[in-house]
């Protein structure tokens, strides 16, 4: 069987995503990533350099996925013809991909990530998102579109920031109720 470099890279990125989202950069182990990917540590280093560069690649992929999710939602669903629809698309992305929120949380908590290495990707997602928000009429709100983007992102990810409260009925609304709360909160924010 011939060596497939692209398939190996895909397996490494999948294993690294799982490892980093579960343990963060500091707790992640390259040997566990290699074992899960079915390759050697040397193959990881050859493809990505060091562990920090691999983390940056994984984190940047999560940022790209967020941008693509909002763009895909707009193309597939007419509801995204409003800022509330934009917020719901972001909420749905993070509800469907909690790993992406965990990766971002680890990067913020550990405070060692080289944000400059993510700047181009972040700038691209921010630019596309703020352009979309302007198109949807957010420019008429009392704040800048960047402030609205931060507020909408914060509202859309609010439940991923809360620990689950087990044993307390109704403590955490179900996903459908959370989505409606996001929709209503963003609508009120802009009125």
TrEMBL record:
Gene3D superfamilies: Tetracycline Repressor, domain 2. Keywords: DNA-binding. Residues 29-48 bind DNA. InterPro entries: Homeodomain-like_sf, HTH-type_TetR-like_transc_reg, HTH_TetR, Sco4008_C, Tet_transcr_reg_TetR-rel_C_sf. It holds the Pfam family TetR_N. Residues 6-66 form the HTH tetR-type domain. It comes from the Bacteria. PANTHER family: HTH-TYPE TRANSCRIPTIONAL REPRESSOR SCO4008 (PTHR30328:SF54), TRANSCRIPTIONAL REPRESSOR (PTHR30328). This is AcrR family transcriptional regulator. It comes from Curtobacterium salicis.
């Amino acid at each position: 069987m011939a060596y497939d470099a692209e398939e190996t890279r895909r397996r490494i990125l999948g294993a690294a995503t799982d490892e980093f989202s579960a343990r963060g950069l500091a707790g992640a182990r390259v040997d566990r990533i290699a074992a899960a990917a079915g390759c050697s540590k040397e193959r990881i280093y050859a493809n990505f350099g060091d562990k920090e560069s691999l983390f940056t690649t994984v984190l940047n992929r999560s940022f790209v996925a967020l941008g693509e999710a909002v763009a895909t939602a707009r193309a597939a669903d007419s509801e995204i013809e409003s800022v509330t629809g934009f917020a719901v698309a972001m909420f749905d992305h993070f509800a469907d991909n909690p790993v992406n929120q965990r990766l971002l949380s680890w990067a913020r908590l550990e405070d060692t990530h080289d944000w400059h290495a993510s700047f181009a990707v972040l700038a691209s997602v921010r630019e596309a998102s703020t352009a979309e928000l302007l198109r949807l009429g957010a420019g008429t709100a009392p704040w800048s579109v960047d402030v609205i983007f931060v507020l909408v992102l914060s509202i859309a990810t609010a439940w991923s920031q809360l620990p689950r409260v087990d044993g307390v009925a109704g403590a955490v609304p179900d996903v459908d109720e959370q989505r409606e709360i996001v929709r209503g909160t963003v609508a009120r924010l802009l009125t």
